[in-house]
Design brief:
Layout: H1 5-37, H2 41-44, H3 47-62, H4 65-77, H5 79-101, H6 107-121, H7 124-135, H8 141-149
Helix pairs in contact: 1-3, 4-7, 5-6
Length: 154
């Protein structure tokens, strides 16, 4: 079978696009894994760890090296609080899953479990605020400017 020039061009463009997408996905995965390695293993394996890794990864790419080290050091210094908060939230989410799976479904118990999970998720905010408040006074003006412009990767 002979390929027409148009079909040949379409195949080449398709191959180039696939290679580009493969490289893009690989780079994103590498960046996420590099950010996860910056966190303590007990945090990195959790949903909160994924959020922190994404946050740290996005900021690390933009922050000056000294500010990046300050941020990582502050996260590490708050590991016990992050671990405790994450463990309580994980336990509450396990209870939500248990209630969802219960037969017959007890909607009152499910609502109570969801409320407990919501309550256990809230303490993560103040820990993250403590991290930021610890780092900001030591950060460069450029680093603070970058943080002030951060919008979660948007």
């Amino acid at each position: 079978m002979r390929l027409t020039p148009t079909l040949r061009l379409a195949l080449i463009l398709s191959l180039a696009l696939n290679l580009f997408l493969l490289a893009f996905v690989g780079a994103q995965q590498w960046r996420q894994q590099a950010a996860l390695r910056a966190l303590p293993p007990s945090i990195a394996r959790t949903p909160a760890g994924n959020v922190l890794a994404t946050l740290f990864g996005q900021l690390a790419a933009q922050l000056p090296p000294d500010d990046r080290r300050l941020l990582r050091s502050a996260i590490l210094s708050h590991t016990p609080q992050l671990e405790q908060t994450q463990a309580r939230f994980a336990a509450a989410m396990d209870q939500v899953r248990t209630e969802i799976d219960r037969t017959p479904l007890d909607t009152a118990a499910l609502r109570a479990a969801m409320a407990q999970a919501r309550e256990q998720r809230q303490p993560l905010g103040p820990v993250l605020e403590d991290i930021v408040m610890e780092v900001l006074p030591q950060m460069s003006a450029e680093g603070r400017h970058i943080l002030s412009r951060y919008r979660g990767g948007r």
